[in-house]
# Entry
Amino acid sequence: MSEKGHLYGIQLVELIKRGELKKDYRPNHGNEFTGGAEELHKMRFCNYISSCSAMLMDERLKAASRRGYYG
Amino acid sequence: MDKSCSTNDDSYLYIVEKFGKKKISSRYEWLYTMMEEFLRIKKIQDDVFVSSDILNHVVIDYFVDIDRLKMFQNIQKTHESKIYAYLAFWLLRHKPLQLKKGDNAEQVAFVNEEFVCDLITGYLFSEPENCAILNNQREVVDNFIGTLLYYFKYRDYSAKNIELIILAFQAGRGYQYSVDRQ
# Structure
C-alpha cells in the first residue's frame, strides 16, 4: 500500500468536508413545459412537418442522399 | 415481515410521486399525438403504428433521466433543449414507431430516426415559424438536416450530445443575429 496514496486519500476527504472541493455542475433552467408550452410546441411541430418548406426539403434530401454533402 | 414497511425496488412509483400524474400522462399524450400526426402527414399510417407499450418505456426512461439530472444539477424546471434531447434519445433507443408489415418496408425502415429528426428540426426552426430559407442558404441548411438524420441512423448519439447540437444551433443563430445587426 502506498503511503502517499493513503495521505492524499485522507486529504481528499478533508477537502470535501471543508467545502473546498465543490461540485461542478451546469444547470440549464427552463420554464414549466407541461400544459401551455406543450400545446404550443405540438402546434409548431404540426405546422412545421406539414409546411411546404419541410416537404420540399424532404424531397431534396432524398434526392441528395447518395451524393453526400460539400461536393 | 411487515409488508407495509417493505420497499419495492422495482417500482417507478417514485417518478409519479416526484413529477405528478398530470405531467407524465400529458407528456405521453404530447408525444403520441405528434407521432400520429407525423404518420398522417407522411401518409404511412398503413405501414407504421405507434406502439403504446414501447412509448411507455420512452416516457418513463425519460423521466428517470430527468429526475437524476434535476437532482445533480439543482434544476427546478428542465430547459426545453434538455426535454427535446432526452426524449429524442429515448425515442431513438426504444423505437416506438413500429412496422405493420415486414415486406417492402425499405421506405419506412428508419421511421423513428426520421420522426426524431423532424422533432428536433421542428423545434429549432420554430422561432420564427414558417421562415423560408434563402436559396443561397439552402445547401448549408439541407446539409445540417441530412447529416443529423444520418447521425441518428448510423453514428453514436447520446442525450448529452443531442443537447449540444441543439445549443450549438441556437448559438449559431445568436451569432448570425449579431452579425446582421452590426
Notes: The radius of gyration of chain A is 27 Å. The first helix of chain A runs from residue 3 to 18. Residues 49 and 55 of chain A are 7 Å apart (CA to CA). Chain A has a mean pLDDT of 86.
